[in-house]
Amino acid sequence: MTARNKELGYLVAVSGLTAVGFASVYIARRALVSWGSLGYAAFFVALYLAAHLIARRTVPNADPYLLPMAGFLTAIGLTEIYRLGPDNAFKQGLWIVVGLALFAAALIGLRRDYRVLESYKYLFGIGAIALLFLPRLPGFGTTVNGARLWVHVGGLQFQPGELAKISFVVFLAAYLREKREVLAQGRLKDFGPLLLIWGATMLVLVATNDMGSGLLYFGIFIAMLYIATGRVSYVAAGIGLFAVGGYFAAREVSHIQERVTVWLHPWTTHKVFCPLTGTYALRQDCQSYQIVKSLYSIANGGWLGSGLGKGTFTTTSGTPLIPYVNTDFIYSALAQELGLIGASALLLVFMLFVARGMKTALQVDDGFSKLLAAGLTFGFAVQTFIIVGGVLRIIPLTGITLPFVSYGGSSIVANFLVLAGLLLVSNRANSQI
Amino acid sequence: MNRQISRVALFTLVMLAALVVATTYWQTWASGGLAARQDNEIQRVAQFEIKRGLILAADGHTVLASNVRRKRGGQNLYFRTYPAHGLASQTVGYSTQSRSRAGIEREENSYLTASNKSLSTIFHTLGDRLRGATITGNNLVLTLRPGAQRIAQNALAGKCGAAVALNPKTGAVYVMASAPTYDPNLIEKPKGYAKIQQTHAPCSPAAPLLNRATQGLYPPGSTFKTVTAAAALDDGVFTPQSTFNDPGYCTEYGKQVKNALDQSGGAEAFGHVNFVDSYVHSINAVFCMIGQKLGAQRVLDESKKFGFYSTPPLETPTDARSPSGLYNGTNLFNPRNANNQVDPGRLAFGQERMLVTPLQMALVAAAIANGGKVPTPRLVKEVRAPGGGVIAKLHPRTWKQATKPATAATIRDMMVQVVQRGTGTAAQIPGVTVAGKTGTAELSANSKNYDAWFIFFAPAENPVVAGAVLVESQPNGFGGAVAAPIARQIMQAILPPASNSKSGTNGH
Question: Is the peptide bond before A60 cis (omega within 30 degrees of 0)?
């Protein structure tokens, strides 16, 4: 069986699951939603069949698992977003169309040889900084949830940071492929452009108060540097610097200090100062409100969960219990409705996606492709870890989207581009044999 | 580069695996603790998506608790309403947003929310879940008789006290009243809970939420002589014909313990009396001597056979039921060597540090009525599925064997005489042989206020009802005058009309 036929088979299975998911939301919330909900499943199946046909024409030898797994994650996300608010699901559906269009454009445009990107490496490097800087421009950006990450174009909100991540990976892959031998020797002057662009991105991220992305870019940088040079000492030095920086930031920067306190001690038994209201309150009713409600939601899922559509996300008077439930906290919603079994299955799909991406990096034979595939995959994995780990209180909580699952146009579009990149590299790897 | 990529791949997979571990931790180990936290609203909200079962009185149509449906955020939520407005409030309890749950609403929550483990319920609930239908709880039919319950509550209105009446054979509780009472519908109203707590009553604190029938602890006074008599007769140390000389007092540790003041106000002295008469006239001095002869340990051991020092079983929360026994302050006191630590004379007539619940005294009466066997008290007659099928039924059980059948028969006759010619004549019902025992418990040495008691059963030949009535802190309130008439009303409400109307044929 050819790779594409396999892919089609898996997509059929994912379509079946999607239909079951929407049907169960429909059954559970019949009072609120109409049969139209099943239209989403059909719409979704059509979109992924289109993606499959494009892949069949452009990347015939690519890995057959990546597209169905991305489809599975998108479907779960869309189902849960639909369950939480049907209006948002409609918007998300539109963004999936946009993402798919860019996915198609990337596959078609780069199907002969995506390695042309290598020659534009500084464009990508500077592009990453520019994209990150965009929300800072007056009259252009808006502040959401304490961080200035969004730009307004017409009626649309867009988070350019998601695309900057891909630019950053392309830059690093190209630059490191070219300079890896000299970098491995450890002469400081060879690091110049690298540190310049990396430093600039970190600066922008600190300035925009976007700690989650800061951690993500840092992780991608260290991992790709290590893959290129094989020098463990760089990793150690990087982590050492990060630890020192993090320690001082946690002590001196009140915003970060608060996050760490909330992470370590979300519950208090006596009232502490609450900067939101200026009064004294239990911390779980103030600063750590989000994480605590999210943990309650996860814990309520138990082994089997309440079932799609049957979770509890509002109080008896109808006010939402969990803030940002369809973006940052979508995992808490899914964990409550799908339970440990469902949440673990979801995480396993993420792990399999990462495993396939890394396998692609191992199989392909040129340095740029290896670095590109490994960088994109690593970014995908670290982003998953940052948000789910934050929600699960493994690390301090920082707002970032869960790839393919969270509500948000920029995230969907960016992840479709990641998928396109991995399919292109994988197609090349499998065509060589 | 492949070596590095493999290592990075391994690292990322371990990182993601950590997420599975953490999820497992929160959803299994930590979930119980998080669910119990006060600020966790999810648990509280989720319970209102379930249509709780109805709570019905024994007649099957008096509704004690039902639901009102409200649409919130497009979702159906069910909130409790109590159409009987305060009938058996402390026993039925409440299930609210603001104060969680109490009473049967709490103890039988799994039946009421259809989360019990009975096969048919699991099957039904699963069906509801799959269809997306509202989960409907099982209905409870209680043993409480609404008519008798209302009569007991009306009789206790304006007082502080409690009344318990049950079937001495099956343990089915017909009446469980506690005064002052409250309207559970108030709890969800603004400031309603505060209003309940400010209830006016002739006792302090008024504590209307307290189920005095199962939780209130009171000195039993002379009703306890029933236990002492059982100890005396069971071993054959005394017989009904044993005679005593009553000088009007009994000497304890060199001091005189006087008989209770009689209804005219003076300490009575009966002179030569037998065992039966000292019970019928409730002579403290004689029981003081009996206690001294038996020893405190023997009397306490006998009380344990009636259920003292155990928490009586019942379908209300454990913390709403108190064990009876000697108390040091608020702690149950189970002396290792009672004969050295407890005053046997005062214990024998229900003083010392003896504290009892009205339920326990009702069980003492029930044991005498039931040939010496203490029945297991039960409040739930039937659990019915929403469709009507019966899931569980009351099965009469014996909780404890208190006395030999012969001893119970002897005491029964003595209790009949208490009502016929002794301190409990106010409990007489024409046409019915009523058995009873009065109690008038001193609250402190100088107080003229007494806790008035009456324990009872009827008809004596084939008892269908046994119980206890307690009225707190009555000025010069003797059990026979204050509690016995209430007991009579309760018995009349429960006894079948035939035995009530046979007046004159074999009455006295």
Answer: no
The per-residue pLDDT for range B139-196, each reduced to its tens digit, is: 999 999 999 999 999 999 999 999 999 999 999 999 999 999 999 999 888 888 889 9
Mean pLDDT of B484-501: 85
Say what the pLDDT of residue B485 is.
95
Low-confidence winner among A98-112, A141-155, B124-138 (lowest mean pLDDT): A141-155
Closest CA to A155 of A142, A138, A165, A145: A142
Strand segments (E) across B295-350: 325-328, 331-332
Asked if A347's CB is within 8 angstroms of B9's CB, the reply is no
Residue numbers in B near A312 (CB within 8 A): 42, 45-46, 49
Interface of B with A in 83-112 (CB under 8 A): 97
Which tokens hold the place of B152?
């007991």
Rg (CA), chain B: 27
d(CA A372, CA A360): 10
- The predicted structure's pLDDT at residue A433: 57
Chain A residues with CB-CB distance to B3 below 8 A: 230
**Is residue A67, in this structure, part of any structural domain at all?**
yes
Please give the residue range of the domain that contains residue A154: 3-266+298-432
Rounded Cα distance, A44 and A227, in Å: 37
Q: Find how far residue A406's CA is from the centre of its chain.
A: 8
3-state secondary structure of B381: strand
The mean pLDDT of B240-267, rounded to a whole number, is: 73
| Strand (E) or helix (H) holding A419 | helix A409-432
Under a CB-based contact definition with an 8 Å cutoff, are residues B374 and B170 in contact?
no
Do B107 and B174 reside in the same domain of the chain? no
Q: What percent of chain B has pLDDT over 90?
A: 64
Q: Looking at the 3D structure of chain B, how many domains does it have? A: 2
pLDDT per residue as tens digits for the range A11-24: 999 999 998 888 88
ipTM of the complex: 0.94
The dihedral of CA A312, A318, A323, A327: what is its sign? positive
What total number of domains does chain A contain? Answer: 1
pTM: 0.71
Q: What is the pLDDT of residue B505?
A: 40
More confident: B476 or A332: A332
- A31 to B37: CB separation less than 8 angstroms, yes or no: no
Please state whether the peptide bond connecting residue B459 to the residue before it is cis, i.e. omega within 30 degrees of 0: yes
Find, in chain B, the residue whose alpha carbon is nearest to that of A346: B20
CA distance A376 to chain B (A): 12
Establish, for the pair of chains A and B, how many residue pairs have beta carbons separated by less than 8 Å.
Answer: 160
Chain A CB within 8 Å of residue B5 CB: yes
DSSP state of B199: -
Same domain, B292 and B415: yes
Residue A292 placed within a domain: no
pLDDT band at B253 (very low <50, low <70, confident <90, very high): confident
Q: Which residues of A touch B20 (CB under 8 A)?
A: 344, 347-348
Inter-chain residue contact B41 with A371, CB threshold 8 Å: no
User: Do residues B213 and B164 touch, judged by C-beta distance below 8 A?
Assistant: yes
Any domain includes B274: yes
Tell whether B126 lies on the interface with A, counting CB pairs under 8 A: no
Q: Name residue A299's beta-bridge partners.
A: none
Contact B8 A374 (CB under 8 A): yes
Its domain, for residue B91, covers 49-137
From the CA of B78, how many Å to the nearest CA of chain A?
10
Q: Which of B417, B438, B419, B437 is nearest to B427 (CA)?
A: B419
Looking at every residue in chain A, the average pLDDT score rounds to: 87
Whole-angstrom CA distances from B267 to A339, B122, B258, B422 are 74, 65, 7, 16
In degrees, rounded to 5, the angle at the alpha carbon of residue A149 between the alpha carbons of residues A143 and A153 is 85
**Rounded distance between C-alpha atoms, residue A392 and residue B372, angstroms:** 60
**pLDDT at res. B479:** 77
**Do residue B5 and residue A303 have CB atoms under 8 angstroms apart?**
no
